[in-house]
Amino acid sequence: SIDPIMEGVLTENTQFWIVKPSVSLLNISGLDALISGNYIQVRPVSDGKEQREFKVMQSMPALSEKTPGLHLFIDSDDLGSIRKHTPIYFKNINVGHIDDFKLSEDAKKVRLNAFIKPEFSHLVKKNSRFYNVSGLNIKADLSGIDIKMESIRSLIKGGISFYTPNYIADNEQANELSKNADIYKLYNDFDDAKAGIKVLLNFDTTVGLSEGNTKIIFKGIVLGVIKKI
């Protein structure tokens, strides 16, 4: 029995799902169900044909494309530590989350459905770059030790961050706002996501060179880094 005030939003696009208590490193949800018992949550949508029979889902469904905000796709080589509801950060501010994921049609990539909250959607540009900030990355070799960690929060919960570079690479559009269904690449980390000029250097030997650590220096100023050998 539904309150009559809800009559206008009982449509084919309205969704119902069961809320159960859940505790994980990523989030805590449904704790009120510990006291009241499991209950049914509704996401009302006024658009669509009137409907009176619904299928109740076992967990919160992905957001509809009509939900206010920015809906993007991010392609990753693998899923790694990314899960549903993995947060998306901008300057360490939570501006969205990963809503869902699936394999690409050719099964070579994992396609992430990303949602950016409406009040932050203007921050994402066509040439923005998304990168993984999950976990702790340590590299140690003859070039030294390199330790990378975005924050304690991202170490525990994982996350994705993005930034918009000042340098515009080939075929990139500057300062143009992103639109729904735009596709981005997920870089391994911030260093990998940096937009720079690619240069090919030839050496007689790679002894002493290290990917991601060996720097290119001019008069004491770091101009670049060896990305791949």
Q: By helix and strand content, what is the structural category?
A: mainly beta
What spatial form do the alpha-carbon principal axes imply?
A: elongated
Mean pLDDT: 83
Give the fraction of residues assigned to helices: under 10%
Number of strands: 16
Question: Distance N terminus to C terminus?
Answer: 66 Å
Helix tally equals: 3
Taken as a percent bin, the fraction of beta residues is 25-35%
* Low-pLDDT windows of residues: none
Order of helices and strands: EEEHEEEEEEEEEHEEHEE
Please write out the topology.
Elements: E1 15-19, E2 22-23, E3 28-29, H1 33-36, E4 39-43, E5 56-57, E6 70-76, E7 87-90, E8 93-103, E9 110-116, E10 129-132, E11 137-141, E12 144-148, H2 152-157, E13 160-163, E14 183-187, H3 190-193, E15 215-218, E16 221-225
Parallel strand pairs: 1-5, 6-14, 7-13, 10-14
Antiparallel strand pairs: 1-4, 2-3, 6-9, 7-8, 8-9, 10-13, 11-12, 15-16
Tags for this model:
16 strands, 229 residues, 3-stranded mixed beta sheet, mainly beta, single chain
Compact description:
This protein is mainly beta and 229 residues long. It contains three helices and 16 strands. The strands form five sheets. Strands 6-9-8-7-13-10-14 form a seven-stranded mixed β-barrel. A three-stranded mixed beta sheet has the order 4-1-5, with no helix packed on it. The chain has a two-stranded antiparallel sheet with strand order 2-3.
